[in-house]
Amino acid sequence: MKIAGIDPSIKSSGIVVMDLDDNLEVKDIQFYGYTTTKMYAVDEGNVHIAYLCAPDKYSALCMPERQRLTYDIISKCLDEVTFLGMEDYATSKAHTGSGSILQIAEFCGGIRYLAYTKGLGIINFGIGQIKRFATGDGDADKISMCVSFKSEYPNLYPTKIFEKLKQFESPHNDLCDAFWMCEILRELMVLEKFGEDKLDPSKFALLTTTKTLGAISLAESPMMKLGMEYESVKKKKKAKKEEVRRIKEELAKEREARKAAKKSSRKRRCES
Question: Which of 33, 181, 236, 256: disulfide with 171, CB 3.0–4.6 Å?
């Protein structure tokens, strides 16, 4: 089975494809991307970064033409892929020019549609959740994400080839981010198929807990798949908040019951 992770970007998306065995261990891993910097175009070993065109020429293209160029690359990468982990919308990347929030939304929405029509099961992961899983810090920077990948998975990190790229910048950091989305997806599949005992306790905790009361965890992230009923994040968050409210009410009742019991006990002692 093949699964993938995508860190979407108009100028430099990172795509990681893992080929898994029956135990969901990684048999093979491939890194794909594209760039407008010719010296970072690499096709060596398991790293494949396509050169689009010069930056000024690419920036002058209309959005549909950029999508045509990049979606063709992405689509080929997703051939034979069953499930896709993808970074959710990053409003923090919004700025004027080609990376404006509207263009990012249009571009990323198109990738989701492409994967959806290919029949992939798609799960969106919150940016803070991805960072927390990778580094333990929901506010981690790009350097930390790359360093964590290299240190935790040295057998999967293509050191010699990645050293040819400008460290911690696109496309290097895009590929590292995409790896974490793919790895989160793989870990979730292990949890689903084999249960908690097959996961490192710290990884299990990161998958199933959140730092925000009422938020959904990585393990609760809904899947989008053609022909499958979708339970929205909004609906899940509402159900989670209702559960939190119910638990709080039950705890409050228990506290009141204990207070009443203590008061009754003191009254009986006084009467005796």
Answer: 33
248 plus 139 within the same structural domain:
no
> How many other C-beta atoms are found inside a 10 Å radius of the C-beta of residue 84?
28
Residues in Cβ contact with 26 at an 8 Å cutoff, skipping those fewer than 6 apart: 18, 19, 20, 156, 186
Domain count, the chain: 2
Range of the domain at 272: 232-272
Do residues 80 and 60 share a domain? yes
Residue pLDDT tens, the chain, 272 long: 999 999 999 999 999 999 999 999 999 999 999 999 999 999 999 999 999 999 999 999 999 999 999 999 999 999 999 999 998 875 555 554 545 788 889 999 999 999 999 999 999 999 999 999 999 999 999 999 999 999 999 999 999 999 999 999 999 999 999 999 999 999 999 999 999 999 999 999 999 999 887 788 999 999 999 999 987 766 655 665 666 667 777 888 888 888 887 877 777 777 66
